[in-house]
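stage 2 :: seqdesign
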């Protein structure tokens, strides 16, 4: 719904600009450009900022759901089969991932492939949320493999300038695939344990 509202708002603004261009077609090109910027410049910047914030929000929400579900699964495993979470880094998901990977053992299957993509997306999330969309060189390596985002390098920094809607859709699909693979592995592992 959020996407539709933003798209509609941008479409309406585009129509207003086109109408103003038609109504003032006799103006010289530079003068018309200044006039349009005067009339609609603030709206264009606000619309652009809304798109940027919505992209950040979408990524954050999807990853929050992922983290929450991963925690629930690990907590359930601990309650049913024992074990403990070991702190392997400052990353909460790394802690849960390490536990889950160790528990599944040989039944891990192709879960790791999905996890790598999701982990790289956490780098993006942290850059967006904590660093105002400015990645450091070492972070840019994780971001380079992500599709449907735009990164611009300037003076040694890497600026995330756009997150496409398809990126968030792909992320949600990867998370769904991750959990399907996890549940398959859990079923095989628990069948083995319970014999």
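stage 2 :: out
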């Amino acid at each position: 719904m959020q996407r539709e509202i933003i798209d509609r708002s941008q479409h309406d603004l585009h129509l207003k600009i086109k109408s103003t261009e038609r109504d003032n077609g006799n103006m010289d090109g530079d003068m018309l450009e200044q006039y349009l910027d005067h009339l609609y410049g603030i709206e264009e910047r606000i619309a652009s900022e809304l798109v940027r914030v919505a992209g950040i929000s979408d990524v954050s929400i999807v990853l929050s759901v992922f983290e929450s579900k991963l925690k629930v699964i690990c907590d359930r495993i601990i309650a049913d089969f024992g074990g403990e979470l070991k702190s392997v880094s400052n990353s909460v998901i790394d802690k849960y991932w390490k536990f889950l990977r160790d528990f599944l053992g040989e039944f891990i299957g192709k879960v790791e492939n999905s996890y790598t993509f999701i982990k790289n997306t956490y780098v993006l999330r942290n850059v967006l949320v904590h660093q105002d969309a400015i990645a450091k060189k070492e972070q840019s390596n994780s971001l380079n493999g992500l599709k449907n985002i735009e990164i611009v390098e300037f003076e040694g920094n890497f600026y995330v300038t756009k997150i496409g809607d398809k990126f968030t859709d792909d992320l949600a699909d990867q998370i769904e695939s991750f959990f399907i693979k996890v549940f398959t592995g859990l079923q095989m592992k628990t069948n083995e344990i319970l014999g």
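stage 3 :: structure notes
- Residues 89 and 95 are 7 Å apart (CA to CA).
- The chain has one domain: 2-194.
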